[in-house]
Amino acid sequence: MSFRFRPFSWSLWLKRLQLGRCAVIAVPLLWLSLFFLLPFALVLKISLSEAAISVPPYAPLVEYAEGTLQILVNVGNYLFLLSDSLYAAAYWGSIKIAFIATLVCLLIGYPMAYAMARAAPRWQLVLLLLVMLPSWTSFLIRVYAWMGILSNSGLLNQLLLGLGLVDAPLRMLNTRFAVIVGIVYAYLPFMVLPLYAHLTRMDMTLLEAASDLGSRRINTFVKVALPLSAGGIVAGCMLVFIPAVGEFVIPELLGGPDTLMIGKILWDEFFLNRDWPVAAALAMIMLGLLLIPIVLFHRYQSRELET
Amino acid sequence: MKRLPSFSTVMLALGLGFLYLPMAVLVAYSFNASSLVTVWAGFSTKWYGELLRDEQILAAVWTSLEIAFFAASMAVCLGTVAALVMTRYGRFRGKTALASMVTAPLVMPEVITGLSLLLLFVQMAALTGWPADRGMMTIWIAHTTFCSAYVAVVVGARLREVDRSIEEAAMDLGSPPARTFFAITLPLISPALAAGWLLAFTLSLDDLVIASFVSGPGANTLPMVVFSSVRLGVSPKINALATLIILAVSLATLVAWYLMRRGEKKRRAALRAQTGD
């Protein structure tokens, strides 16, 4: 029997392990850096360049002319956006509409999630699938469904006329009301899901203890249930509010001239006016406005991942 | 004395009604003989016939299915690696960056993601000549990127749940990390991989905004074709398409529910057998 001590192969093995580890880490990090992070830097770059009639339709930022390297930074796009009140109105309108829709989603979604979490265990999976199923169909078609319901000759107006509640059809389509209904309808499952996840983990005996000690139902809810589900509320609200601010499909299909939303303005600047630098500047300002909500959501999500 | 249903139960029933009534209206009107959506003119299946003869929609369905299949498959690979790195690799440089890049796509407004990716593709083409023209390839990259974030969340949740002692035992017995992953971890998280794949598949099929930005001439996905038709108003053909989509998703959900319930029963039976002896 022979025994050979091989210290070199050990260190080689460790080295290989580290190399493998680095390679595994690099795969998602590189992909996401290239296709998610780098594009934002490019949006910033284009937002500082001038529009030009060329392909692609903007002037280069760095130019080599007369033997020197020239960097042409142009804040004109931002100044333009600030000078035209249309854009400020669109930002304000988007935030207002998204805020109202988020609030309505929370007011409908919280009791729904609460009832689901307190349902018998064998019903919980069925209810969860029922709430999520609409979001797996088609976003576009679910928004489209409301066009037929809210139009002047649509189902809701026929119902109201038939019941004699109104004399003439109400104008509902292409109003702010329609946009809010559309956002609430499309995003409600994303509000219910995190709330439900939080409420099922909540210890229901705490609520029973509170009521046994003589606390009234409202009091129990405000002082016990609400603080315990605060994380779910933040996550649900951010999952609705942030995408809703930049929503394009819903204001395009259900909105009208008085529902300016920034997602639609950006789309029009890009596809109709072909003004890429202005569209990029619009995106950068939107990102700046949404930075705090995004950080809030991220902090919640990383806490969630750690527990 | 019969108790009245609580406020939250009533809200749940109303909420579900709110979610399903508009879809029921679409299904009902898809069988309407009249081309005017608001007038009921008797039962007919003619719009389904017209839908199946619409070459443009059929071609778009295939394009979308193809992109969704490949994007979901790639997103599952990428998202699983990201989730594994986040849950099993301890601390490393770039972890915070990776964590932000996994959560941010979940909420990022689509117009921003779409515009930023298009600008990337345009500048990459100018610098390196690739991608020479935009189309299915660029949509695939865009969908893979945002879908992998969703997969990472779904798979990451599962990775945190599974019993790590089995993995540790395998490693203690000398199994290298890669082998441990494929032999132990992968089978344990396979339900989450399936769920992540299905979620990525539906997200890719559903996306209109990002695809519109990064697509080029010739590559029209189903949402793009539906959108250009819907913009002009309500059309019974789209109602028929909606009914077919709702039917397909409902059937898939029913199968998933059945499988999950069976798995749960099996698990309980195994638990009973274990404790009974």
What distinguishing features does this structure have?
A: 307 residues; two-stranded antiparallel sheet; 2 strands; globular; B: 277 residues; 0% strand
By DSSP, the count of extended strands of chain B is: 0
**Residue share in helix of chain A:** over 70%
Our Rg estimate of chain A from Cα atoms comes to 27 Å
What is the topology, as strand order, of the major beta sheet of chain A?
A: 1-2
Query: Can you count the helices of chain B?
Result: 11
Q: What's the gyration radius of chain B in Å?
A: 23 Å
- Sheet bearing the most strands of chain B, described? none
- Biggest β-sheet strands, sense, barrel of chain A: 2 strands, antiparallel
Number of helices of chain A: 13
Largest interface: A-B, 89 and 92 residues
Q: What's the mean pLDDT score of chain B?
A: 90
The helicity of chain B comes to: over 70%
- The count of DSSP E runs of length 2 or more, i.e. the number of strands of chain A, is 2
Distance between the termini of chain B: 44 Å
- Helix/sheet category of chain A: mainly alpha
Provide the succession of SSEs of chain A: HEEHHHHHHHHHHHH
